[in-house]
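Dear support,

I submitted the protein below through the web form. The confirmation email said the job was done, but the results page showed an empty box. After a refresh the structure appeared. I'm attaching both so you can tell me whether what I see now is the final result or a partial one.
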Amino acid sequence: GIKISDSHDEPELEFFDRVPTVWDDTKVIHGEVGKYITVARRTGSAWFIGTITNDEERKLNIPLDFLTEGQSYLAHIYYDDPNVPTRTKVGIKNIPVTNKSTLEAVLPASGGQAVWLEAQKKFVHPGILHTQADIKRTHKLIDNKTEPAYGSFLLLKEHKCSQPDYRMEGPFRIISRDGEYRHTKSKMEADFSAVYQNALMWTLTGNKAHARKSLEILTAYADSLTMIPETNDAPLLVGLEGLKIIYALEILKYTYPGIKDEDLVPVNRMFTEIFMPVMENFYAARPYTNGNWGSIVTKTYMAAGIYFNNRAMYNKGMDFYLHGHDNGSILHYISGETGQIQESGRDQSHCMLGIGAMATLCEIAWKQGDDLYSALSNRLMKGYEYVAQYNLGYDVLFSVWEDVTGKYCDWKTISDKARGNYMPVFEIAYNHYVRRQGLQMPYTLQVLEKIRPEGFDRDQPAFGSLLFND
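What the results page shows now:
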């Protein structure tokens, strides 16, 4: 028989973590003695459905008319799939449903399907990295000049992109990181950093000039931008710069009284018509990139789901992080045995870029009441400790990585390129795992003792000693 010790952190184990031992309701959906059966059981607002068949293949429809009228659910479906690259061959898909929906169960001989129906919550606003409670807490840290938070605030306050009189480098009609329009790269990056940082400064100081500057830049780009060319780096552009835009929009919409709904219309249109298609194309393509790309795109995709109140987008991002067949999913980016990063043989900068993006999307989910940090037994924490340990000068275990694309399997040793050059990505993870959860991250702490207070980074939320300090 199968033993608990046989487990290798298969993704479908999350189903068993959710299944309760006490039930409030039970329904037999359909069945024939000796042939098949489908049973639904409820605890609280969550339903769990199990379907099994005998030694005959079978296709069944499962009506969901027993669900609460007017309530939206996310169906987490666990099914037999011989093409899944795990020992257990269980596929997972997530789809939004209501009591008007019908699920299909395609069962192999002697097979089955399990479904967890999760009632969907309303989004918290503001709720992209920071809530109203977080903003109030940072005010106290600044007022009391609490270190190292206050040191991060001073770095933010003094940065050129945080000034209410910031002078735009653009706007541009076309923006790109590479190709014909690569000359716009550093300029538009600075402009979008000014969007983000002025929105931050508005929340931290109450100075309306910062809010006006953030909105001014957003509006200028909305009035000018016509396209992002389909170059190699287009997904990175929309992921890195898109989060700055969405964070600012969320903050301005829900905290700045001087903004009107019509002010947001052109900016919203710019994002949905120019930025969003690039992300959708990335998800639709076969895996082709190193893992930092996937988490960079996904942090912005999830944030956009929150801002636009689009639960399907948000859930799609979470599903990618947990189950995606891509180097950018937690399963394929960090080793569960050692914490090695898919890009450890490439260089250390991209490892930090990748884990920083993962921590960002985990923090975004946390503010919405969803715990991605704990996925696969806190695997992100293990990745952080591995990166910190190596960059501090210690030896770590390394093995040749078999990546999803097959393109990045020839790194024979861990790379010392950029070793010891730390990005400000460590406070966000330390804050969660140590301050919130009471766990230990000794190597990450050593890094923080070297780099505190965290300051600016073009590609990260940054200023973590202030922004992520529970």
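Response: this is the final, complete result; the empty box was a page-load delay. The two ends are 45 Å apart (CA to CA).
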